[in-house]
Amino acid sequence: EGLEGLVHISEIDWGLVEDPRAMFKVGEKMDVKIIEIKDGKISLSIKTLKENPWVSAGKKYKKDATVSGVIIKYNQYGALASVEEGVAGLVHISEFGTTDALKQALELGKSYQFKINIFEPKEQRMTLSLIVEEKK
């Protein structure tokens, strides 16, 4: 008799996962780790079998440092910029005033220079500010 468990989307990868169907096929075999058994339900994780990229990021990045990041997603708080695989920072909407201004300044898929305002790798939290180049 087999057991069934669920891998929540947040347990698939350390990075942003938009569509699990693009990553896996039904019936595909894979290694998972049991992370919880509660009320007869089994919670599984794939990402815990990989190194957490925030651990090495904690050694590389510091508050007030300049980093390059690619805009990967907009959300209600602003834009997410990926600085490396699995490590992203939030560029808060308050820097731009409106969602339209944010989307005009930061295009999806484009790379920009940012200053790290808050960096808390243990909490997997990074906030960024866009570095605007001075026009001469």
Overview of this structure, please?
The protein has 136 residues and is mainly β. It has two domains: 6-49, no CATH class; 53-130, OB fold (Dihydrolipoamide Acetyltransferase, E2P) (Beta Barrel). The chain is 11% helix and 38% strand. It has two helices and eight strands, in the order βββαβββαββ. The chain has helices at residues 53-60, 99-105, and strands at residues 6-7, 33-38, 41-45, 66-75, 78-84, 87-92, 111-120, 125-130. A five-stranded mixed barrel has the order 4-5-6-8-7. It has a three-stranded mixed beta sheet with strand order 1-3-2, with no helix packed on it.
In total, the number of strands is 8
Distance between the termini: 71 Å
CATH architecture label of the largest domain = Beta Barrel
Helix-strand category: mainly beta
Topology-level CATH name of the largest domain: OB fold (Dihydrolipoamide Acetyltransferase, E2P)
Strand arrangement, major sheet: 4-5-6-8-7
Alpha carbon gyration radius: 18 Å
Count of spatially separate domains = 2
H/E order of the elements?
EEEHEEEHEE
Briefly characterize the structure.
The protein is mainly beta. The chain has helices spanning 53-60, 99-105, and strands at residues 6-7, 33-38, 41-45, 66-75, 78-84, 87-92, 111-120, 125-130.
How is the secondary structure organized here?
Elements: E1 6-7, E2 33-38, E3 41-45, H1 53-60, E4 66-75, E5 78-84, E6 87-92, H2 99-105, E7 111-120, E8 125-130
Parallel strand pairs: 1-3, 6-8
Antiparallel strand pairs: 2-3, 4-5, 4-7, 5-6, 7-8
